[in-house]
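dude i think i finally got it to work??
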Amino acid sequence: MESLAPRHNSAFSGYERLKHDIIRGVFKPGEKLLMSGLKERYDLGVGPLREALSQLVAEHLVVVISQKGYRVASMSLQELQDIYDARANLEAMIVGLAIERGDDAWEAQVVAQSHTLSKVMDVQTREKVLDVWDMRHKAFHSAIAAGCGSKHLLQVRTYLFDQAERYRHLWLTQTVFSEEALEIKRKEHAALVEAILARDTERATTMMRNHLMSPVPIILEVMQREGLGKAVSLVTAS
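look at this
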């Protein structure tokens, strides 16, 4: 069994690194993933890379080409709309359940994560700023969702979040480097926390739905500018 451990660890490392690069746009939608290039970039053998690619196929980030190779999955405006609409409605339902079921400890965790998010530390590089803010933003929303007390809803939430990652990254790059955009998000988060602490379900669910849909026009603009999807009519929350 010990001899299998390095192979497993290599595959996991390759999976995490390749997934990160796909999400961050190092490999573009539709780009062919050549094994020779992947071996050189990640310093991994064919076996671990195939395991990593198979996992990414299961997550719809990579597609198989006639059983002979792999490409980065395409992105589309239709998928953008579908994922974000599903996420917004699910998160709205979850925050409603969390308000109904959450206790004082849950409230305290939401407040703590909100405070941490509002004070992103000074860091040296743009990449680090993006990573820190994104990590704290995820922790804030996860703290809210945790109050619903349903592991199955949280699993569906995680799945939808993973499906949205490439689209979210386009939004993040337009947001975390703009003080004006960050200030808008700070105000949205503060208002959401206020509604949650007031146990105002109707206000919190409406705010959450609108909050989750607000990145769509920004992502749409970036996708059209970079030619990442065919133009379709999108319906967003007002």
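The CA atoms of residues 36 and 128 lie 29 Å apart.
im so relieved honestly
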